[in-house]
Amino acid sequence: MSDNILSLSCKQLRDKILAREITSVEAVEAVFNNIEKVEPKVGAYVSLDKDRALDEAAKIDKRIANGENPGLLAGVPVAVKDNMATEFGTTSCASKILADFKAPYTATAVSKLIDAGAIVIGKLNMDEFAMGSSTENSGIKQTYNPWNLDCVPGGSSGGSAAAVAAQMCFASLGSDTGGSIRQPASFCGVVGLKPTYGRVSRWGLVAYGSSLDQIGPLSKDVTDAALMLNVIAGDDERDSTCVDESIAPAKDYLGELDTPIDGLKIAIVPEFIESASDEVAAAINSSIEVYKRQGAEIVEISMPHFEYAIATYYIVATAEASSNLARFDGVRYGHRSDDIKDYMGVYSKSREEGFGQEVKRRIMLGTYALSSGYYDAYYLKALKVRNLIRQDFTQAFEKADCIIMPVSPTTAFKVGEKTQDPLEMYMADIYTIAANLSGVPAVSVPCGFDKDGMPIGLQILGPSFQEDKLLRVARMYEVNSGIEYRKPAILD
Amino acid sequence: MANIKYKTLIGLEIHVQLKTKTKMFCSCPTGFGGEANTRVCPVCLGMPGVLPVMNKKAYEFSVLAALALNCNIARFTKWDRKSYYYPDLPKNYQISQYDLPMSENGYIEIPTDGGETKKVRILRAHLEEDAGKNSHATGNYSQVDLNRAGTPLLEIVTEPDLRNGREVRSLAQQLQRIVRYLGVSEADMQKGHMRFEPNINLVGEIDGKEFKTAIAEIKNLNSFRALERSVDYETNRQLEEYLETRKGMGQVPKTTRGWDADREITVHQRSKEAANDYRYFPDPDLVPVVLDDAWFEQIKSRMVELPLAKERKFISKYGLSEYDAGVLTSERSMAEYFEEAIEAGGDAKRVCNFITQTGLKLANEAGKSFVDLGIEAKKLAKLSQMVSDGDINASAATSLISKMVESDEDPMVLAEKFNLIQKSDTAELEAIVEQVFAENPQAVEDARAGSKKEKKSRGFLMGQVMQKTKGQANPKVVSGILAKKLS
Asked: What per-residue confidence (pLDDT) applies to B422?
């Protein structure tokens, strides 16, 4: 029974809960039973609250028993990345500096999940302040890939991907600043969607790179991604960077999800596929065949400024981060050093002790990029290149409905393999960063496994605010590829 | 003795707190004082994951103020982060405007001696958020109150067009009047609603050799008096220091000096060896502000006649003295009240006297503004007419004004009620004059035309008539009767 529940998608589970075939309490129990078994090996969670989850589930069950419909995610156990503020539990961003931080507010995206009847069972591990591609930069713990415990789950939303893959929740929220939803989704064999910048409110998301950050779902399948997006999308008066509903209204992303797109035009950039590892390239090439079989037209394009994306990203994101993270100073909340002689010491000592190495590296990079005398050469130049990258996308979408490419050049690498070389680690995001710089939506869909049994992800990128189309294209692949949902052996 | 010629260059950096109900980027109420950290929320506390949302009203207030300062208003602006670490700055950056301020290139006209005005150029005016306050009152720790953090501030930067303390004070007072007229700030210096930081240095020649002193910025000025005195003090101090050390700009650094109000001197606080690097960059949490035509027109439509224009009008149109016009226009409500009373038929000089002499005294005693005394302008106009018509005399008018504060009744009704109507009936007054003549034959003799004591004695007789009529005799009528009878 329990095993059956865990394999369900959010939509299936919700329908069974609404039909009173399963109670939400049973679903929560099933998840926690699995967590007891798997979590010690995977380490996806920073914090879990079973009592609270059971209480909330019981309330949902009661409402259903009273004939109410609690919403699109009625009774479904989900979890959120620990950089989203919640009034319950802690919001640590996997950083020592916020290890005990309790937020007096809840992120809009999380509130929306709760309002839709979801049960938020815990907070998920991540690279500290979302800076990283392997979750090895967590200041709290290491998360392991459920498909191979020697491997990283990807990052920075490593906990969000690993928890869904290991069936320790039915779906999760992650945040994506340079690939932080898509890359771990790909490494862990789940679907991960980064919506268009401005589609989902950032209120309550602890900022890393404010102009790049976007919250999105990780789920077992594309349908659940659409369902989750239905719940979290929309304008928010507390986030001025959210798109105005009158300009780009949130849509029903499930509505036409299963309707194939007639005359689909898919753009590819051949050198992007060639530059990936052989096995990844082969998987992407065979997914192109899947689309061709459905009558899609493949268009070869070039994106001339794509190669500058990583350099641009590490200026823009770190510049914003250096400023966003200035507030963690030990004055009002968070870690304060015991070893203080003056007020500058409150800052320097607290921050020295509270931040991890990668966070410090990025703060320093960003501070440098914004410094007088360097601003024009770095930050301003980066903004110009960012515009060129946006133009690349505009031109691409004049020729095609979407672009497909790998999510990552390789499958999940070994824990510790790249920690000594930050630049090599940065290269893991080569295919994902451009979507953040230009704001366009992109999704990672499982498209096979390498010879070691590690999942490979297919990335599909679409025009801004056309997540409906993007998800349909993803769904077309999912339906026609013949790739069945699989769970990692650790669950057997 | 050296031959010294110099002028003082004074520019001002001014911060004006805008009178919005809520803060610049969150919905916390603005205010002054109160228990520490009670007007705060996650946004103005700089907690993780929160986002600022612009207060539209604050933007409109600043556009209005910038218009009144004759600035060019930008139709596209953005927000920038100014980074520095200080405990009263919760995010460790201030949201401000850097390279695209909401307005620039304006001027403010200030009155100078002899009815002239001087234009002081304004480099720019931009909107930003205020910081909180640190206090170091007790023990080996400091405390931070963030009630003020996030309050909207208009920063105004002038060119160094001012030359002395008097001009600086004049600008400050003029600006106070303007922002109060516009209703965009309470502009109370004691409460820090308006903060002035003069930048001062001297340029000139000593024995034909050019010199320039290093710029000093003066802080901690919380009254017009302090502003004026500190500037004049600093001017002399810089001159003396230069004469002593012969070291000026380039040889000594820019400094910040604090005003010590007790000793009335400026005191060295710190040197600005190198320019601070604030690492300005566009705030990615806020969208740029686009002031479109419709919005701009809507703001412009709220513009009012500004104090200096009103003051000039009061002088030229109503023949008021510069002083009286200045007093009447010191508050917009009072100036408008005055105009309303004139409109209703009041005599300008008389109404002016009612307000500036009697009204303001009463207002002061009551601790209110004149307008809040609650006398209707049209009733004050009527009072003025009653004096013109001879119904009451000036002293009766004065006492009626205090009665009108307490009563809504018509001034004529009040005058009757309190027996303040003048006796102007010639026959009745002639009888009284006869009676006074009979009682004071010597004075009558002395008051005859051509007598040495004529003036004094006539005054005495008038006084006697007034005494008999309890001050209600119309002095004009009485003096007419006296003149006739004594000729």
From this structure: 82
Q: What 8-state DSSP symbol labels residue A195?
A: P
* Cα gap A110→A130, rounded to integer Å: 17
Chain B contact for A328 (CB, 8 A cutoff):
yes
Distance of CA A374 to the CA centre of its chain: 32
- Residue A156, preceding peptide bond in cis (omega within 30° of 0): yes
Q: Which of residues 58-87 of A touch B (CB under 8 A)?
A: 83-85
Where are the strands (E) in A161-286, listed by range?
171-176, 191-194, 214-219, 265-268
* CA separation for the pair B320, B299 (Å, rounded): 32
Q: Which of A47, A92, A157, A180 is catalytic?
A: A180
Q: Do A240 and B45 touch (CB under 8 A)?
A: no
Contact B49 A241 (CB under 8 A): no
A287 has catalytic annotation: no
Q: Which of A240, A332, A346 sits opposite B287 (nearest CB)?
A: A240
Q: Residue A54: what pLDDT?
A: 98
How much is the pLDDT for A244?
94
Contact map slice: A 358-417 vs B, CB within 8 A: 367, 370-372, 375, 379
Which domains are present in chain B? 4-293 (no CATH), 310-417 (no CATH), 426-486 (1.10.10.410)
pLDDT-derived band of residue A3, with 50, 70 and 90 as boundaries?
low
Query: What is the fold of A2-260+467-491?
Result: Amidase signature (AS) enzymes (3.90.1300)
Q: Tell me: pLDDT of B9 over 70.
A: yes
| pLDDT tens track for B156-211 | 999 999 999 999 999 999 999 999 999 999 999 999 999 999 999 999 999 999 99
Domain ranges of chain A: 2-260+467-491
CB of A256 less than 8 A from some CB of B: no
The catalytic residue among A9, A11, A16, A81 is A81
Integer Cα distance of B174 and A135 in angstroms: 60
